[in-house]
Design a protein that fits this description.
single chain; 488 residues; alpha/beta; Rossmann fold; 5-stranded parallel sheet; 5-stranded mixed sheet; 14 helices; 58% helix; binds magnesium ion; two-component regulatory system; phosphoprotein
Length: 488
């Protein structure tokens, strides 16, 4: 870019008279003037001290004005310097050629001083304006560049920020999910621990008195037998007893007592034996609930669970009985945590009953067409799993609720009725503990079906040797009482 502080004009002409006339006129007008007498010397001079404007003659020895102009325009350092050709008045061809080579104007010889000066001044002004514009343009370009890069940086930053926010949100929702799961586990294990202690205590307290009742019953039975034999003996030895004895015998219906008493004693023995079994299952539960996987009959577990909720299935004033259809398939013994699976059955069955009760309460004149039914279907699927399908003809589950059924603490039941933990605990038991799956199928208005699938064999399960537990199948079957405990 040229230095606008200088006021230097270079005149290139091989005719000394021309040089003289022009120099004088320009100097008088306040310009600094440099002169060159050939194209070559002009080019050298311009490189050394670039002028603000060049007045260039066409006809010169050596390289002519056109060639000089060409070379100056080809050089990036000099191409911006305005060139005015000096041509003879009639030389139209030269004028056009000069302009096409990049000259800004021409002045004709002989010079009209005033016109030449006016043209020079206009071109200098134009040159200054164009330089200022270029500078401004460069500034604007730079500004645009800066803004573009600032915008790019901002975009990058926004993207990074968005990414971080979404990562953080993901982390937080995962943390929340984990926390809820941990909470459910904690509640469950806490419940079981307290329950285990309670059950162990109760079992211990009941065990002793029951044992001595049961033990003494055998003696009592023997004594009773002896006493009855003695009475018979009296009757044979003294057939004619006194009137008073005969009266008393009739009054107490001695013959009936003789027949009934042994039956009573043996039913008492059966009763105490049952209590002992219950106590034993309490003890088993409190000791073994967290124990290893056992091979069990799933139908026994379902039946015990049904026995425990039997009271909820019975007809009540205004409500009919809830009918249970057992559509059991042919299942092999299944390796599982029996108590925990019973807990799952209890949760699903209780929900089905809740749903049916809700429907009955909301449906006036509940008629026979709407008789409440729970169907339990079991089958082997894919050769290595079993499926238990528990279906009810209750109100069904809307899609919105279906999405959240297994979420911890999600309930649609009134406060105090549901904790919203039943299905999430069941999900944990089936999916995490047994590697199975638990899902529901429902069309609102058409009841709901919960499908529990677990593998028949569990990894890490080793069959006990016959001498360790020959009757493992028998002992592993959960009694209804231990299932009840698993529910509390
Ligand atoms: N058979 C069903 N029919 C209709 N809705 C059901 C059925 N089973 C579950 N649900 C819905 O799923 C929700 C969650 O069930 P979940 O067993 O986890 O909790 P809850 O029964 O509400 O409370 P809790 O079992 O802890 O006492 C229920 O509140 C209910 O809305
Ligand atoms: Mg429930």
């Amino acid at each position: 870019m040229q230095n606008s502080d200088t006021n230097l004009i270079l005149i290139v002409d091989d005719t000394p008279t021309n040089l003289e006339v022009l120099s004088e006129a320009l100097t008088d007008a306040g310009f600094d003037v440099a002169v060159a007498t050939s194209g070559e010397s002009a080019i050298k001079q311009i490189e050394y001290e670039p002028p603000e404007l060049i007045l260039l003659d066409v006809m010169m020895p050596g390289i002519d004005g056109f060639e000089t102009c060409k070379r100056l325009k080809a050089n990036p350092k000099t191409k911006h310097i305005p060139i005015i050709f000096m041509t003879a008045l009639a030389d139209t061809v030269d004028k056009v050629k000069g302009l096409s080579l990049g000259a800004v104007d021409y002045i004709t010889k002989p010079f009209q001083q005033a016109e030449a000066l006016a043209r020079i001044q206009i071109h200098l002004k134009l040159q200054n304006i164009s330089v200022a514009l270029e500078q401004q343009n460069a500034r604007l370009q730079q500004e645009i560049q800066e803004r573009v890069s600032a915008e790019l940086a901002l975009q990058k930053l926004t993207q990074e920020l968005e990414q971080r926010v979404s990562e953080r949100t993901k982390e937080l929702s995962q943390a929340l999910h984990d926390l809820q799961k941990a909470q459910v586990k904690l509640i469950q294990s806490e419940k079981l621990a307290t329950l285990g202690q309670l059950v162990a205590g109760v079992a211990h307290e009941i065990n002793n008195p029951v044992n001595f009742i049961h033990g003494n019953l055998q003696h009592a039975s023997c004594y009773i037998e002896d006493l009855l034999a003695l009475i018979s003996l009296y009757q044979t030895q003294f057939p004619d007893s006194s009137l008073e004895i005969a009266k008393k015998s009739k009054e107490i219906d001695l013959e009936f007592i003789r027949l009934d008493l042994p039956k009573i004693v043996s039913s008492m023995a059966i009763g105490t034996q049952r209590i002992q079994e219950i106590v034993q299952s309490f003890r088993n539960f409190s000791r073994h609930d967290e124990a290893e996987v056992k091979k069990v009959n799933i139908h026994d577990g379902l039946n015990s669970t049904l026995m425990l909720i039997d009271h909820r299935l019975k007809a009540k004033p205004g409500y009919p009985t809830i009918q249970v259809i057992k559509d059991y398939g042919n299942l092999p013994p299944v390796e599982c945590f029996a108590g925990k699976m019973n807990q799952v059955f209890m949760n699903v069955l209780s929900n089905a009953i809740d749903a049916l009760e809700e429907l009955m309460a909301n449906t006036q004149n509940f008629d026979h067409k709407l008789s409440p039914i729970i169907r339990i279907h079991t089958e082997v699927v894919g050769g290595d799993r079993i499926a238990i399908r528990i279906t009810d003809n209750g109100p069904g589950i809307s899609e919105v609720v279906q999405k959240r059924v297994f979420d911890p603490f999600f309930t649609t039941k009134p406060a105090g009725k549901g904790t919203g933990l039943g299905m999430s605990i069941s999900h944990q038991i089936v999916v995490e503990k047994h590697g199975g799956s638990l899902y529901c199928i429902s069309c609102p208005g058409n009841g709901a079906e919960f499908v529990i699938e677990i593998p028949i064999r569990q990894e890490n399960f080793s069959e006990p040797s016959w001498w360790e537990s020959p009757d493992i199948l028998e002992t592993s079957v959960q009694s209804p009482e231990s299932s009840l405990i698993a529910q509390i």
